[in-house]
Structure formats: C-alpha cells, structure tokens
Amino acid sequence: MKHASLRRFWVVAAFGLLLAATAAYLSLTNGTFDMSVMDVIQTLLRIHPQAEHDLVVFEFRLPRIVLGALVGFSLGVAGAIIQGVTRNGLADPGILGINAGAGLAVVLFMFLFQGAVTATGWLGVMLMPMFGVAGGLLATAAIYMFAREQGKLDPQRLILVGIAIASGFGALTMYISLKMNPNDYEMAVVWLAGSLHNANWKFVATMLPWLLLLPLICIRSHVLDLFQLSEESQKSVGMPVEREKNIFLLCSIGLVSASVAVSGSIAFIGLIAPHLARQLVGLRHIRIIPVSGLVGMIMVLTGDFIGKTVFAPAELSVGIVVSIIGVPYFVYLLIRSRG
Amino acid sequence: MRLKRTLPVTILAMAPAAIVLLILASILYGAKNITAGEVWNSITAFNPDNVDHQIIMSSRLPRAVGAMMIGAFLAVSGALMQGMTRNYLASPSIMGVSDGSVFAVTLCMIFLPNANPNLYIVSSLIGSALGAAIVFGLAWCIPQGLSPVRLAILGSIVGTFLSGVAHALSTYFQVSQNISFWYNARLHQMNPELIRLSIPFAIVGLTLAVVISKSISALSLGEEIATGLGIRTWLTRALAILAVVLLTGVSVALAGKIAFVGLIIPHIARFFTGSDYRWVIPVSGVLGGIFLAMCDIVARFINYPFETPVGVVTALIGVPFFLYLIKTRGGAGA
Q: Which of A290, B213, B235, B268 has the highest local Cβ count within 10 Å?
C-alpha cells in the first residue's frame, strides 16, 4: 500500500515535469518573433549561433520561462504551507493580504528610490525582494494581531482580516502609485497586475537564494502533517506548536514576497495548486509540497503562454489569465466543501 | 422607546442644514479658492463669461451634489443588503455588484464606442444585476454560503473574476486607457448630464427601499419570524435586490468603484436608530451622503493641489472600521 502511493507520487511528479517542459517548450518556440523548432534547438546547443536568435532566446524567452517556473513553484509551495498551517483550504497568500503587503512595500521602494536605484540594476534587484519580505511580514503581523483571540488563531476570522488588510494595503498602494512620475507609474501598474513581462536574468538570480528555503521546508514537512491533528493531540505529541507555526509561516512569507518582488501579485496559484496536489498524491505533506510546487509551475507557465499568444499583439499578464481560469475551479471547491 | 425616536428624528431634521453647509464647503474649497459671495452671485445672477461662475456651475456644484447622491445610494444599498442577509459584512463593494457594473460598462465601451451616456447607466445597471445574481446565486447553492466569511470570499472572488475578464477584454480591444480613466473615476470628473439621467433610476430605487423597509426589519429578525409576521420573504428579497441593483448601478455609472461607504454607514446608522429599518434606511442615506461629501473634501487636501481618488480616503477610514467589526463580531452570523 505504502509502496503504491509512493509509486503514484513518482508518476505524478514525472508527468508534472513533462507538462511543465511542454509548456516551457511552447513558450520558447512561439511568440511575435517566430522561430522554428530547429532554430531553437540550434541556438540552445550553440550550433551555427545567430545573433538574432541568441537575443530572442537568451535575453527574452528563456529568462521569462525560468522566472515563471521559479515563481510558480514558490507560490505553490507557499500555498501548501499556509493551508497546512491554518488547516483552512481557503487560505491563500493573496486572500490573506501577504501579496498586498509585499506589493505595497515594493511600490514604496520604486517610489522612494526612483532614479537613484534603477529597478533593473543589481542593487535594486537585490533590495526589492527584501522590501517585499518586510511588507509581507508587516501584513502578516497585522493579520496576526487582529485575527488572534485569546492566543488562538481563528481560521474564519483570519480570512476576513486578510480581506480587510488586503484592501487597505491596496488603497495605500494606489495612493503611492499615483504620486509617482508617469514612467514609474506605468511600470508599477504593469507589475502590480502580476506579469512576467520584465523578466531578466537578474530577477532569476534574486529568486534563487529564497529557494534555499525549500529543502528546509521539505525536511520539516512531517510537522505539517501533525498540524492536521486536533490541538490536544498536537500538545500530547510534545510539539512546540506556536514556534513551528511561526517557522513555517516565515518560510512561506519569504517565498511569496520574493515572488511578488519579481513578478507582482499572481493570485490563485497558492489557493488552487495545493488542492490539486492533495487530490493527486494524498495527504502527506512531504508529497503535497513538491507536487503543489510543480502544479504552480505548470499553471504559471501555461498562463503566461496563453496571455502572450491569445491576446497578441497586446499582452495579458499571467496574473489575470490565472485568475480567470482559477475562479471557476475555486467556486467548484466551495460548492463541494461542507460548512 | 421615546428616546430611540428622538435621535433619528433629530438627525433627519438637521440633515438639510448639514447638506447645504457641506455643499457650500465643497464648492468653496479646492485647487482654486472661491469666495462665498461669488457662489451667491453665480446662483442669483449667473454670468457665463465669469470663469468662477463657470467653475461653480459646471464642476464644483455637480461634484458636491454627486458625492452626496452616491454616498446616500451606496449606504442605502448596504443597509438593505445587511438587513436582508443578516450578514454584517454585506455591502455593494464586497458583493461583486460594483465589479459586475464595471464589467458591463467595459463591454459597452468596446462594442458601442459612440454610445450616449444614457447607455452607460443602463449597462452599469445590467452589470450590477449580473454581479449580484452571480454572487447570491452561488451563495444559495453553497453550504452556508450566506455566512459572513463565505459571502465575503465569494464576493471578492467573483469580483476578481469579473474585473479580470473586463481587463482581459479591454486589453484585447485596446480600450484599456478609456477604461482605467473611467475605473478610477474621481469625483472631479462628475458629469452633470449623467447626474440628471440617473435621477429617475435613483428615485425608483430609493422609493422601493423605503417601501420595503418594514419588511426588511422583519427579515433581519430571521426567516421564520418574518414568515410568522406575514411577510412575503421572497418578494421582499427580490424587491430589495432590485433596489440595490438600481442604486449601486447608478453610483458606479457616476463615479466608478467607491468601497466601504455601504459597509460602514449602516452600522453607524443602526448605532443611532436601533434595528428598525424604517429609520435605519433614511438615516443611512443621510449619513452616507454627508460621509462621502466630507471624504471628497478631505481627498482634495491630502496631496494638495493634486486630487486623491476618494476611494483611498474611504478605504483609510473603512479598513480600521472593518477590522473593528471583525474583532467584535467574529466569523459567525449577524
């Protein structure tokens, strides 16, 4: 039995990787500048390199795909953690206002350092996620403060507070973005909608350090399984519940905020990916977490591909594509759930 | 009992004076200061060649009146929704009604680019009806869908969906600049023509709200009690939704999305009047109008001489209030 479920996990993982690779391949070959399959392969393998193809593949399409994959993976993992910690299938970094907090901080960063630190220079690129994390932490602190009652985190109240915090931070973000000069404003608006449009290798590099959190999360993932027990059972196992919760929340805030800093707020990934993962590989978090990350990766890559091609020559940001696809699924989840 | 009546009556009696004063204040203060004498002249002896008179008549006055009207409409909608669903978080902006309206206006801008303003109001109304229908329809299908948490999530998700689709369409048809101009409509772009057109819809909506206010009081006690009192609950709900759709649709057509007015004001009104909706509804209307007009004046001075969208001001006041409500009432029913 145990063996069968393990095999199932590997089949799902392999199939997921295959799907992600397909999405990446499609994005790599399609676009406003058409390239044949052979062109792409030749460029990647450095056979008869052509400057034009090099530019398209290495400077535009490849970073975008890699960044999309990293962001999708992080968001999926973060969503799985947050749903595990709160024991609430409706929890999601977006609904909880973590995205909005990180977004506010990043817009504030763009506003304060306009011109002085360009957003695409190294310093800016490295600083922006730090600002994002600070904003995410701020939002989480605010949510904690209001959602706790008598030392307990009430999952229902958590979501309501999250919605409130998100709209408050949203208003502040709008206020700050209106004070920006027109150039920065355009950038902020595009970025806020959740877009991979500005992807470059520097953004990819900023995402990488945050991925070091992943092994940490995987090693401790059995603790998330324990969270699913009742509070009394958790205590009887002898687990320092609050401390573990905080560690996990910090990890997911780090991942979400870093993603928001490079690609804006892409909603629904953290909500939907864990549900799909649970359906695919069961209830153990050591399996849910990587699969949820893979699902997130596939969602972002596909969403970006759709947004790039269906609406050509205009481009629709991946955040909007994902939310249009995500809502019906979410409503389906709500209809199925009880109470 | 005696005391409970005096307070709302006092509020309603003092309302006309407060409204006139606020409108005057709203006309006087702004990027260009205008003297009170000039205002008086522009009403008694309007001179089309006088720049000040022009500003007053074509910009400041419509703006002041528009803010009042929108505030009142949103607050009355919120009061109706909260009474009807017994959900303390129910309000037009949380329930996807405003996003539905934005969605329909986007469609209208894309497919009928040269439409007259009348059509915008109509499409905004249709869109509000659509948004309300989706959110309430789903809420009825979903287990415990009308509880505060579920309704809030449904509303914000459906809202995200509708505005996402609207955004996708406007990008595809390359009208997003028009849309965003309209979306973030600030009160200073108030169109006097639109205000005039919206009046008949608003009268119908407000009349409906007042007519059904007694039944809403009964509904707010619970389905069974209402039925026991001989209220036709189905009819009351339908009429209340119709009123909400008319009032919210008109508001969004006039000034885009303005959140939190419909959420906060009914709570404040109930604080003064108790839970009799025959008083809650008119008092909400008066307080809503005054509230939004004041927010509008504040919005002019936050970043003087530049305008700040009034939605920022309402959110800054509304979010703490929202948090307070959650803190005191939690996730359970009303």
A: A290
Task: Show residues of chain B in contact with A163, CB under 8 Å.
Answer: 94, 152-153, 156
**A312 at interface of B, judged by CB pairs closer than 8 A:** no
Residue A165 contacts B, CB cutoff 8 Å:
yes
CB pairs under 8 A between A and B: 113
Number of H helices, E strands in chain B: 15, 0
Q: Could B167 and A157 be called an inter-chain contact, meaning their C-beta atoms sit closer than 8 Å?
A: no
pLDDT in tens, B89-101: 888 877 778 888 8
Closest of B204, B214, B208, B209 to residue B282, by C-alpha: B209
Is this model's pTM higher than 0.90 or not? no
Give me A78's structure tokens.
């973060």
What lies within 8 Å, CB to CB, of B253 at 6+ separation is B101, B105, B120, B121, B124, B125, B194, B198
Beta bridge partners of A152: A149
Residue A241 to residues A152, A220, A224, A288, Cα–Cα distance (Å): 11, 13, 10, 21
CA distances from B6 to A182, B10, B211, B268 (A): 53, 6, 22, 16
Identify whether the C-beta of residue A111 lies closer than 8 Å to the C-beta of residue A185: no
Interface pTM, i.e. ipTM: 0.76
Q: A179 to chain B: nearest residue by CA?
A: B303
Sketch out chain B's domains with CATH numbers: 2-329 (1.10.3470.10)
